Amino acid sequence: MSTPISPSTSPAAPTPSTLAWRLLQPADLGTMEVLHRLSLAGMAAHTVKAESRDFLASLLQGRGQVIGAWAGQALVAYGVLQHDLLPEDDPRPHLGLSADRPAAKLAGAAVAPDWRGQHLQRTLIAKRMAQAQPGAVLFATAAPDNTASWHNLLACGFAVRALEYRYGGFARYLLAHDPAAPSAGPALAASGLDVPSSDLPRQQALLHAGWRGVAPGSTAGSLHLTPPPGGAA
């Protein structure tokens, strides 16, 4: 059984290129929970949702897959790919997709503080995308003020498709990656708009009208949205 990480754990000699990757098993629950709690330190409650031990256990018992990065016996990062979705979590109605289309959620990730700034979040996104069923639409949620989270997802090909209020009324972007859908081309992206995060109602109205958030905007915290194909800018 792996040794739980502690706040004093340091990368020392290991680097991201030397990490060992494997799927977490039920026996790793304690280690996973410790890293989850550690990753929340200093984060506002409305920005990142704290998960229960029972939820984490359900992921390791078959509701999803959890890929972990290990430095020796220490778990330094993990990412969740959840395929057993609750009805209220299903993004397909929002995305205009049929109910039989495969879908999975990137349902959280954590990186130990000493390992931040080494692109492990993007590595975790890429590894989960590679694990997913071929052709599946993938989705994730991120708080608008958790810019690092949605910037990483946008960089990996996701797009903001909706702005919703979840987890007790907190704002969340719904980001999706549909391998069957064309991405926004340069001409379409050039016709878009930067909308600041201080104007969430405008972002929500544009997204509801079919616009998509495809990149960070030119000012801090803003989102660059492009019109739907054939739509007016």
Automatic annotation (TrEMBL):
Q: Which GO terms describe its molecular function?
A: acyltransferase activity, transferring groups other than amino-acyl groups
Q: Which domain of life is it from?
A: Bacteria
Known Pfam families for this protein? Acetyltransf_1
Supply the InterPro entries for this chain: Acyl_CoA_acyltransferase, GNAT_dom
Q: Where is the N-acetyltransferase domain?
A: 19-180
Protein name stated in the entry: N-acetyltransferase domain-containing protein
Name its species. Simplicispira metamorpha
Q: What is the lineage of its organism?
A: Bacteria, Pseudomonadati, Pseudomonadota, Betaproteobacteria, Burkholderiales
